[in-house]
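Regression test case RT-17, inverse folding.

Input:
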């Protein structure tokens, strides 16, 4: 099973999420989608105020026969079809598709690190994982062997002022 994190903070954000989920269907079986959350953009000090655009975030899970790098290439193709162009690492994006976790895969290469290195630091990525796969066993580091649900409880990850449930859903 693979869990992907999706985010969008430009244009019709929900439509970008919906288009991405549709484009994933050919390579992911048994797709399940989380709630759609809204979060404040994570920005470095001095970032242009115009980048301070709130994100819609969600996760999907499913099964794929693709190898990790092939899946990443598929995700990058979906991103560019949505019109995503490089605006720098903190810049706004039509759609961001990240591989959060993938079975027991632990890898770190120049272009792909799994589990995603920021997953455990980002409430907006971690909380949606509980919606789609609460029993997923995290395969790496200090949380190795723990269920996603228990990690979220231990870290006290919760909705709050900067992370809200929009009440919107993406139909899969
Ligand atoms: P962000 O880190 O904000 O998602 P990008 O989407 O621009 O930024 O990703 C930058 C690069 O991160 C991608 O080109 C990709 O090669 C690399 N990358 C490394 N690990 C992952 C992962 N687990 N999922 C998606 N991209 C990854
Ligand atoms: Mg990305």
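Golden output:
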């Amino acid at each position: 099973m693979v869990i992907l994190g999706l985010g969008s903070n430009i244009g019709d954000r929900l439509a970008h999420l919906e288009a991405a989920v549709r484009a994933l269907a050919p390579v992911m079986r048994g797709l399940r989608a989380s709630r759609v959350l809204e979060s404040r953009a994570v920005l470095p000090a001095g970032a242009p105020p115009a980048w301070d655009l709130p994100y819609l975030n969600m996760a999907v899970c499913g099964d794929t026969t693709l190898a990790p790098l092939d899946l990443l290439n598929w995700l990058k193709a979906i991103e560019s079809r949505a019109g995503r162009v490089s605006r720098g690492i903190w810049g706004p994006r039509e759609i961001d598709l990240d591989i959060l976790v993938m079975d027991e895969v632990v890898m770190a290469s120049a272009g792909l690190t799994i589990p995603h290195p920021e997953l455990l630091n980002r409430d907006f990525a971690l909380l949606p994982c509980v919606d789609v796969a609460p029993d997923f066993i995290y395969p790496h580091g200090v949380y190795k062997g723990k269920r996603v649900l228990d990690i979220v409880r231990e870290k006290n990850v919760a909705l709050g002022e900067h992370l809200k449930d929009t009440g919107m859903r993406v139909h899969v």
